[in-house]
Design goal:
The chain is of the alpha/beta class. 39% of the residues lie in helices and 13% in strands. The chain has 4 domains: 125 residues, 3-Layer(aba) Sandwich (Rossmann fold); 154 residues, Rossmann fold (3-Layer(aba) Sandwich), CATH 3.40.50; 80 residues, Helicase, Ruva Protein, domain 3; 90 residues, Arc Repressor Mutant, subunit A.
C-alpha cells in the first residue's frame, strides 16, 4: 500500500498557466487522495490530466495515449514505479517522467534517473515545488514532443561547467552532487589519479550554502607524517622545536567552508584517531594546547585507494571509513568513458586559447580517432597534458594531426596484427607458420626474441595446391602441431589472443562494447587486456 503522505501547501494559482495549458499529464498513484489532489491542482493550471490507480493501468493508458509527462509513484501494490518505468521505456513510452516517493534517498533517485526518469520528487512536497518542476520539464517542449536536454546536463552547464563529459556514469555523478550539495554531509570521492576528484569537490562546495566561505584543499600524501597534525590542527608557540610562533591549521582556515582532504588513505593511524574526533565532536585541539576549539567545516575526502580493503588490512580505521563513506561518489576512469575524449580535448584547447590569447589549432578527425583508442592510464590529467604538449610543439597554425601525437599514441596506428602468416617448406604437406612479430614503438628494442613459431599443418591432396578457404570460427587443437624445438607457450597464446582482439576492434571501428561481444568476453576483461599491453 502506498504511504499516506500527501503534498502540502495550498495552490496559489487559480488560472491556467500559459506554459502548461493543454499539456497531457498521467498521474499514477494507488492512493486516491494523492491522485485526486494532483489531478485537480494540475487541471486548474490547464493540464489535461488522467489518473491511474496502479502500474498495470498506467501501462495500458500510456500504450493508448502519448503523454507529455507522467507523475509516477514509487511504491504501489501491483507494480512499483521502477518496474513501470522500466517497461514503459522498453516500449518507447514515458519520455518525461517524474518519480514520486517518501523514500527520498540518493540511491532511489539515482536508480530512477538511470531507468530514464527526468527527476525525483520527495513526499511530502509543496504544490508550488511541483509546479516549478513540471514547468521546468515541460517548458522547453512543444506539446507531444518527448525530446529535451537531460536535466543532469542542464544542471552541470549551470553550476559546474568544468566537469566535462556526457557518459551515463558521469551524469550519475552530476545527479548526486545536485542532491547533496546543500547539505553538510561528509562526502568521499573515489577514483583513479587524474580523474578529477578535486573538481568534483569544488563543484560540491560552489553549489552549496558554503560557497562564500573558504575551500581549503590539503594533499595528505604530500605532507610529512610528522607535520600533518600541525598542518591540520595548528600549533601553539613552542609546541615543538622550530615552533617560534603560534600557527593556525587548515581546520581554522576553512571554518565555515569546506576542507578537501585529498589522498586520505595516506593519513597515519595516529592522525586518523584525532581526525575521527573532529568528525564526531566538531572540535579539535591544536598541537601544544589543551583546550579544544569548535569548528564548522564540511569534510570532503578523496582517495585512489581501496579504503575498505585497507580497513581489513588494519591500515585504515574502520570507524573512520564508515564516517567518511556516508555519500561515496565513484568517478569513472577515462578509459571507461572514452567517448568523452573528443569533447575533453576540445575543451582543453579552448582553455589554452583563452590563457595564451592566441588562436589555437583544432584536432584532426584521425588524431581524435587515435586518441580514443589509447587507454589513458593517467586519465583526464594525462589528456590535458597531452593536448597542451601537442599545442606547444606544433609548428604553425592550422590543425593538430597524427604527427603531433606523442609516440606512444602514434604507435597505435602503426601496430601490426600480432600474427603474420608466412609459408613454410616442410618435406611433406604444406604448412602455415604463424609468427608473433616484435612489438611496435619504442619498446621494440627491449623486446625479447620472437618465440618459436606455432606450426599448423594443412592437409592437401597430392600434387595439388590447397584451395583457399575462410578461417574456421573456432580452431580445434589438432589444427596446431608442436615443432620439434618447442615453443614459448605463454607468448604464443598472448600473441594469438591480441591478434583476435585487434581484428575485433578493427572490425567494430574501435568500439570496445561490440568488440567484446564478438570475442565472447566481458568489456572490462577486454579493457584490462588492452591496458596490460600498453605497459
Amino acid at each position: 500500500m502506498a504511504n499516506t503522505l500527501i503534498p502540502v501547501g495550498a495552490p496559489r494559482r487559480n488560472v491556467p498557466d500559459p506554459l502548461l495549458e493543454g499539456r497531457s499529464v498521467l498521474i499514477v498513484d494507488d492512493h486516491d487522495a494523492h491522485r485526486n489532489l494532483l489531478t485537480n491542482y494540475l487541471g486548474v493550471l490547464g493540464c489535461r490530466c488522467q489518473g491511474a490507480s496502479g502500474g498495470n493501468e498506467a501501462l495500458e493508458r500510456m500504450a493508448a495515449t502519448p503523454f507529455d509527462l507522467v507523475l509516477l509513484d514509487l511504491r504501489m501494490d501491483d507494480l512499483d514505479g521502477m518496474e513501470v518505468l522500466k517497461r514503459a521505456r522498453a516500449r518507447g513510452m514515458a519520455a518525461n517522467c517524474i518519480m514520486m516517493s517518501a523514500e527520498g534517498t540518493i540511491s532511489h533517485a539515482v536508480d530512477a534517473i538511470r531507468l530514464g526518469a527526468t527527476d525525483f520528487l520527495v513526499k511530502p512536497f509543496e504544490l508550488e515545488q511541483l509546479t516549478g518542476l513540471v514547468r521546468r520539464v515541460l517548458g522547453s517542449l512543444a506539446p507531444g514532443d518527448g525530446t529535451r536536454q537531460d536535466p543532469r546536463l542542464a544542471w552541470r552547464d549551470t553550476h559546474a561547467p568544468d566537469l566535462i563529459g556526457e557518459h551515463p556514469r558521469l551524469l550519475d555523478v552530476f545527479l548526486v552532487i545536485e542532491r547533496i550539495a546543500n547539505t553538510d554531509c561528509t562526502v568521499l570521492v573515489l577514483g583513479e589519479s587524474g580523474t578529477g576528484k578535486e573538481l568534483v569537490a569544488r563543484a560540491i562546495h560552489n553549489t552549496s550554502g558554503r560557497k562564500g566561505k573558504p575551500f581549503v584543499p590539503v594533499n595528505c600524501g604530500a605532507i610529512p607524517e610528522t607535520l600533518i597534525e600541525s598542518e591540520l590542527f595548528g600549533h601553539a608557540k613552542g609546541a615543538f622545536s622550530g615552533a617560534t610562533s603560534a600557527r593556525e591549521g587548515r581546520f581554522a582556515v576553512a571554518d565555515g567552508g569546506t576542507l578537501f582532504l585529498d589522498e586520505i588513505g595516506e593519513m597515519s593511524l595516529a592522525v586518523q584517531v584525532k581526525f575521527l574526533r573532529v568528525l564526531q565532536e566538531q572540535e579539535y585541539v591544536p598541537v601544544g594546547e589543551t583546550r579544544p576549539r569548535k569548528c564548522d567545516v564540511r569534510i570532503i575526502a578523496a582517495t585512489n585507494k581501496n579504503l575498505e580493503q585497507m580497513t581489513r588490512e588494519g591500515t585504515f580505521r574502520e570507524d573512520l571509513f564508515y564516517r567518511l563513506n556516508l555519500i561515496p561518489i565513484h568517478l569513472p576512469a577515462l578509459r571507461e568513458r572514452i567517448e568523452d575524449v573528443p569533447r575533453l580535448a576540445q575543451h582543453f584547447l579552448g582553455m589554452l586559447g583563452t590563457r595564451t590569447s592566441q588562436p589555437t589549432p583544432t584536432l584532426s578527425p584521425p588524431a581524435l580517432e587515435l586518441m580514443t583508442r589509447y587507454e589513458w592510464p593517467g586519465n583526464v590529467r594525462e589528456l590535458q597534458n597531452t593536448v597542451e604538449r601537442m599545442t606547444l610543439l606544433h609548428q604553425g597554425g592550422g590543425m593538430l594531426d597524427l604527427g603531433d601525437l606523442p609516440p606512444k599514441i602514434q604507435s597505435l596506428s602503426g601496430r601490426s596484427t600480432p600474427f603474420s602468416v608466412v609459408p613454410a617448406a616442410p618435406p611433406s604437406s604444406p604448412v602455415v607458420e604463424i609468427r608473433a612479430p616484435p612489438p611496435a614503438g619504442p619498446a621494440a628494442s627491449a623486446a625479447p626474441p620472437t618465440p618459436t613459431p606455432v606450426v599448423a599443418e594443412v592437409p592437401t591432396a597430392a600434387n595439388t595446391s590447397p584451395p583457399p578457404r575462410d578461417p574456421a570460427p573456432v580452431l580445434a587443437p589438432e589444427d596446431f602441431v608442436l615443432p620439434n624445438e618447442g615453443i614459448d607457450l605463454r607468448k604464443a597464446v598472448q600473441a594469438f589472443e591480441m591478434s583476435l582482439i585487434d581484428q575485433a576492434l578493427a572490425r567494430t571501428g574501435g568500439n570496445k562494447n561490440q568488440a567484446s561481444m564478438l570475442l565472447g568476453m566481458n568489456r572490462t576483461t577486454l579493457v584490462e587486456k588492452l591496458r596490460k599491453r600498453q605497459r
